[in-house]
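Re: weekly structure request thread

Next one in the queue (197 aa):
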Amino acid sequence: MNKEKLIEMGLSEEQAKKVMEALDGNYVTKNRFNEVNEDNKTLKNTIAERDKQLEGLKKTSGDNDALKQQIADLQKQNADSQKAHEAEMNKLKLDNAIETALAAVGAKNIKAVRSLLDESKLKLTNNGEVEGLSDAIKAVQKSDPYLFEEKSQKNNLRGFQPGASSRSKPGADVDFSKMTYSEMAAYLAENPDAKIE
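Done, posted below.
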């Protein structure tokens, strides 16, 4: 979440700035929370399984050859379960990265857009980014633009709305010299026929 996203959601620039200052980096995205939560569940299950394995070893401690064989089998099982866990976590991270990227570019239906992506060409890098994702999204945007929100058409039809609070009514004199750049830009966006004098 960043200031621009908050402004897109309808907050003023000042409100967005206050929210970002209040958060001060002390928040975790839902995707990251889900990753850590899933990792925690898997680790707890792994510990419980290994405790059972140790109890089984204590019972067979009399026969040395059988004990060595059982230890070797358990080591192989543990290595296999570790590989499966890593693969599962990488898949979860890849899924979260793809969904976050699709939401950021304004996909109307993430599942529909995702079904059009060739995920076999996507690869999760060490820094958590997805290699080839931007090209894949651009290809879908080009072939199926209706699946994405058009930012340029947003707020095109505006006019004076009776009863709605507004900085000024059409035709009213506005002193641009007392406005900041962002206030002037917002006013001109709301009143495209206004003249700067």
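The chain has a mean pLDDT of 78. The chain has seven helices and two strands.
Next request, please.
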